[in-house]
Design brief:
Elements lengths: L8 H5 L4 E6 L4 E5 L20 E3 L2 H4 L11 H11 L10 H36 L3 H4 L19 H8 L1 H21 L32 H32 L4 H27 L14 H22 L16 H25 L13 H29 L16 H36 L14 H15 L4 H26 L3 H4 L5 H34 L1 H14 L15 H19 L3 E6 L1 H12 L2 H4 L2 E6 L3 H8 L1 H4 L1 H9 L3 E5 L21 E2 L30 H14 L29
InterPro entries: AB_hydrolase_fold (IPR029058)
Protein name: Lipase (Class 3)
Keywords: Membrane, Transmembrane, Transmembrane helix
Amino acid sequence: MHGVGGTTAQEMLGDPRVQLITGDDTAACYRRTDDADAEQRPDDYRGEPVREAYCWSNLTSGNGARALWLILVPFMVANLAHWMRPAAPSEHPAQRIYDLLVRILALTLTVLLAAAACEVALDLTAWQCAGTTVCAAGKSWMGFLSPDNSGWWSAPGRRLALASMVPLLVIGFLWGLSRRTWSAYESASPPPRLPGTSRDTPVAERTALSREGFWYGRRLVARLRAAHTTAGVLTVAAVLLAAAAKADGDGGHPVLAVTGRALTALVIVLAAATLIVVWRTARSEGAPDVSSDHLVVRTLPFASLAVLALTLVYTGWARPGARSRGPLPGADAFGGIAVFQGVLVLALAVTAWVLQRAARDDARTALRGMGGPAVALLACAVGGVLSGGVAQRFADWLDGGATPGQAHAPIPGPPVLLSWQASVIPVLLVVVAAVAVLAAIRMVIVRNRVAKDVPGLYDPREQPDAGRTKRIAATIAGAGLTDSAPVLIAATSAVTLVLGAGAVIGAWLTGRAPGRATEGAPPVVHAAAETAESLGSWLMGAGVILLITMGRRAYRDHSARRTIGILWDVGTFWPRAAHPFAPPCYAERAVPDLTWRMATWTERFDGRLVLSGHSQGSVLAAAAVWQLDLVTRSRVALLTYGSPLERLYGRWFPAFFGPPALTGLHREMDDWRNLWRFTDPIGGPIRLTCEGGRRIDQGPLRDPLSFGRTLQNPLPAQILGHGDYQADPVFGTVRAELIARLSPDLPGQRPAGDESPEGRPAQGSSGRSSG
C-alpha cells in the first residue's frame, strides 16, 4: 500500500504490465499480468509470494472538482477536533459532553458561513450599495435595484429577497457536494465477522477502530447534513426577518408586524429542533448505522425552506417609504457568534482536561490532551478569517477608491468586528514568526550536535566529508522539527484566543474600526492601529485570494491536484463525525476495501499474507487489520515503514492510536515490524516491545546508505528521508522474516540479486517509494 502522494500500480509492482484484480478507477487492487491467475498455478509460486498492490490515491486527488474542497478547511479542522479527545475510558461521562460540544461548535461554523454569505450579498450589496446612489453609480448590473429608478425591485425588502438567493445557493452547493461524496465514500459496508470469534482483547487495549460500525456512519452523516442545511437556511431567514422587523417596528403595518413575529417563532422552533437533532446525533460504532431517520429529521430541511419562502414573501411585501440606511439590522450577530464559539472552546478545554486526568496513558499525548480544543479554536479562527476576508475585499471592490467604514466612504462597510479581527492578524503572524525563529535556532543547535556523531555511523574507511556531514545532520535536525508542532499550535491557539477576545471587546466598547477608535490616542498608538487595520484587511483578502488561486490551479493542473491530495490524506482520514460538509473520509472506502480483500482471499485459499504499508498507507493497513475477525487477523503479518502511527496519530489521537491500542493490535496479529529513519520527517518508531522482548521497531535505518564514495557506490548516495524504504537491504530481510514466520510451508521470496522484495532491481532508479 502506498502512502501520501500516491503512486501507480506499475511503480509499486515494478512492472509496466499490470492487471486490475478487483475494484474500480477510484481504488483497486492490481497484480502483475503474469501473476493475475497465481492461485490457479500454485506450483509456479513455490519459491516466492504473490505481490499485489492496492492503489487509493484517486480517493483524495482524482478529478479536478476535488480542488473545491479547499473551501471546506474550517469544517475539516473542526472534524479533527472530535477525534483528538484524550484516551479516557469510553464509559466516562465526559466523553459524551466532549462530542456534543464539538458537534455544536461545528454547527456554529455552518451558521458563520451562511452569515458571511448574507453579509456579502444582503448587507453590502442589496442593502448598503444598492441603496446608495454614489455606490450604485457606474454599476450597470445594479441599476435595476437602485431606488433612483423607482423600479419594482428597488424596494429594500425586495432587494434583500432577491439577494438571498446567493447564500441559499452556497448552502445548496455544500449540501449537494456533501451528498455526492456521501454516496461515493460512506457507502462501502464492512464484511461480516465470522461467527464464534469473540474478542478476548483486554479492555484497556480495545480501540473503537476495531468496532464493526466504525467505518460505516452513513446515516449519521445524513442526519448531520439535514441539521446543518436547516441551520444555514434558517440563518438566511433570520437575517431577512431582522431587516423586515426593523421596518415594521418603525411605523409599519400591524398585520405585517404580527406576521413577522409568527415567522420568527417558527424559525426559533425549527432552530430548537435542529439543536436537538445535533444533540442526539452521536456515533454508534458497535454495528453499522443502517437505521432509518425519524420523520422530523427528514422533514427539517424542507420545513426550513418553507419558512424561508414565507419569509421572502413577507420581506418583499410593499412598505411605502422604506429606506435602507446604515448597516443591515442584525449585522452585529458576528460578535455573538464569536463569543459563543469562544465559550464552547473554553468548555471543550475543561472537558478535555477532565478526560485527560482519567486517561490511561498520557506520557506522549500532544498538548497534554488539549489538542482537540486548540484545533477547534483554530477552526473558528480560519472560518473567521475566510468570512472576514471575503467581506472586506468585496466591500473594497464596491467602494472603489474609498475605505469601507471610514467617514468618507459611501457605505458603512462590513461589521466593525471584522475590522478588529483583521487588525489582530499581523500580531498573530509576529508570534508565529517568533516561534519559527526559535525552531530554526533549535534546528541549528541540533544539527551541530548531531554532526559530531554522523561519521561514526559509517565505515571508518570512508573518508569524512564536512559538507556531507552537515547536510545529513541538517536533514536529521529538520526531520525532528515535526515533534515541535505542538509548541507552534499551542502558541498560535493561545494568542488567537487572547487576541480574538480583545477584538470582540474592542468592537463592542468602541463601535468603530480600530483606526477611528484611536483617533484621540497618542500618535504612535493611532498609527499602529491604522497600520494593523490596513495590513490585516489586506492579509485577510490575500488569504482568500490565495485559496481561490490554489483551487483554480488544482482544477487545471493534475500535479497541483495531487499536492492538494497529500494534504487531505492526513486531514481526511477520519469519518465525518462532527461536520457533514467536511471533505469526505477516504478511509470509509479504503478500509472496507482492504478488509473485504483480506477476509475473502484468506478464506477462499486458506492463505497467509504480509500487509506492507508506507506512510499513510500504514495507517490504513492498521485500521484494516483492526476490522478483521480474530481468526483472519492471526493470519496477517504487518510491515510498516515511514509510518506516522505513533509519531502523529498516537500523540494527537491517543484514544484510538495510543500505546494500549497499538499493543492490542500486535497481540492479535501474527507479527509486526516497523522501519524508520532519523531523517524521516513523517515516520517514526512505534515505541513498543513485542512479547518475549523482541522490538517491533527495526531502526533507525542508516540514511544515506553510504557516507562517501566507495568502490560499490562511486557516486554520493541520496539522502532518502521519507521515501525509498525498499532500497534499504533491511527491508528485504525483514519482509522475508515475516513471510517465513507465517508458515513453514509458505514459499520464500525471490533469490537475492534477482529482484527486490517489490519486484524491482535492488538499487534501480525505479525503486522510488510508494509515497
